[in-house]
User: Fold this.
Amino acid sequence: MPQLHDRTRRKICIAAFFAVCVLPTCCLFAWGISRHNPWHASAYAQQLESYLGLNVTIDHVEHPLPGVIRYHGVRLCDPETGQVVAVFNRIEARLQKVQDRPLPALELEADSAWICPKRFDSFTRLLNRAMARRMTSDDVDLQLDIGELKLQADGNDTDSGITTLTTVEGRLQTIENGSRAKFSFWLGSPGEDADSTEPISIYISRDRRDTPASISFIIDARIAPLPCGLLAMVMPECASLGSNSRFQGYISAQKTVDGWKGDVQDAKLTDIDLESLLGRRFPNTLTGQAQVTIQQARFSDGRLQEAIGSMAAGPGMVGGEFYNSVWIQLFLDSYIRIPAEVKYAPYDKLSLNFTINHDSLQIKGAIANQARPAILTNTAGPMLVEMEKQPQPQTISALLNTLAPVNSYQIPATAQVQRLSNFLPLPNASKIIKNTQ
Assistant:
């Protein structure tokens, strides 16, 4: 073996030192700096933006374990308004294989999060994209776990405007004919005896066999009541029920070309604000907290078809004009007449049973009375009671005339008229009132 010169050996050792020690150390040092560089977090934020369709900002990103990415300070913003939609303190993402599933699962785990319900339309669009499997180029099952999720009304910084959901779990899977999702959560803390309480569950499915693809959902809140403010995220009509209103029951619905169809079973709406419910849509005055129980209801084409239930409310105030319209249009016996100059009258209790369908409306009093069951009472006694001789069931037109002001513009309450009214101009409300005076 040839002998190398001492100078040559030193050069080889120095080169080996730089190649084996110095260069890897510099590369590792540069790699570590790049992981803490703001550009690194921005790159991941841009990647999430392409997935979610929302503006994303991330404070910093960590890689605690191989295959695990931890995001800190994640904020999702509406790309049109720039307003913050959701804030996550920390999200940990990992890819796991699922037994008996061909697709891997992307697990997202967050300790806490904040969402503004008024901006939930952004999440609705996101969910539609995810259900259509256009969320990522690599099709994966998604699993989301959030320890505590706070939903806060827009512009309301008080604790009363915050709804806290705990142990939130979400699953999104691809199936043969579409996709399905399930969300479950508890309101507040599950409690010490959590095994005896079932969470509120929401099921969503998308069927590609229909053209266009149909969306259906099930809300199962039979064990625990659900704030109507949460329902208003997907059903804006629920916002008029009041900030303290709650829903407990079962809803199954499917969106078709003609509108939503489905049914409601064993449902109860509590703490309904009657002033908010009627005041936003009708020129009537009725105040107080109400509870509505629906034994069963069915709707199709986006319209209620039939319902059986009961209603109880009070105490509160009833408008004189509205009171007179109720007993005249619905053929009730009035024990108390409210003069025209009296705008409001107090009532103590309102209680009735109802049955409604496309042919008729039946109302029965539910307050025990010596003569006949009463519907409305005050401290002095009954105000409205059933007629001694029960008339034929009232038509839907009678209910419409009760809620809407009587005017000279009389049209039949039919489906054909409803379709036409969506395209034709409506009479001015002030002129209607003037014509009836």
